[in-house]
Amino acid sequence: MVKINTKNVSEWVMFFLLIFFSVLINPVLAIDSPDAPDLIGEFEAREQVFLKEINHPRNGARDYLIAYDNYQNFLDDEMNKAYYLVKSRLSAEQQQKLIHSQCNWMKFRDAEFELIKNTWTRQDFGSSAGISRGSYRCTIIRNRVLQLLHYAKNYSGD
């Protein structure tokens, strides 16, 4: 006769129940409000015009510089909108912390821009230097826009 160790059976049942309930609960925690605007998706849709301009196959060096300049101006505007959106959802004390954070981010941005300007020079990288500088600058600003949009999306203000 085979004897079943009931201790092992109860451990397996507990393990199975733990897995079952964690799988059951996790999707519920990840659901976003269907009524909430898709701030990130809307931003990404708006930026497509500028990305198409940058990626146009017939661009010359000057066209790239103009396209990146236009994109950077767009990103600066988007960052300001996202910043004020987040700020509008915060208490007065939290707003001061956001202002401080944004000032520090701008110092970081300026330092990065200086590094980019002094490193990707025409002497070292030829005509592609301007394209690299534009791309790097835009990436820094775009990341901040996305960060602020995530803040706005996730902060309920309750």
Q: Helix amount, in percent?
A: over 70%
Percentage of residues in strands: under 5%
Rg value:
25 Å
User: How many domains is the backbone divided into?
Assistant: 1
What is the residue-averaged pLDDT?
A: 86
Number of helices: 6
The total beta strand count reads 0
- SSE order, one letter for each helix or strand: HHHHHH
- Unreliable residue runs: 26-30
Separation, N- and C-terminal Cα atoms: 63 Å
Strand count, sense and barrel status of the largest sheet are: none
Outline: extended
Secondary structural class: mainly alpha
Describe the structure.
- There is one protein chain.
- This protein is mainly alpha-helical and 158 residues long.
- The protein has one domain.
- It is 80% helix and 0% strand.
- The chain has six helices and no strands.
- It has helices spanning 6-29, 39-54, 61-88, 92-119, 122-125, 128-154.
- Helix 2 runs antiparallel to helix 3, helix 3 (61-88) packs parallel to helix 6 (128-154) and helix 4 (92-119) packs antiparallel against helix 6.
- The longest helix has 28 residues, at 61-88.
- It is extended, with a radius of gyration of 25 Å.
- The model is unreliable at 26-30 (pLDDT under 50).
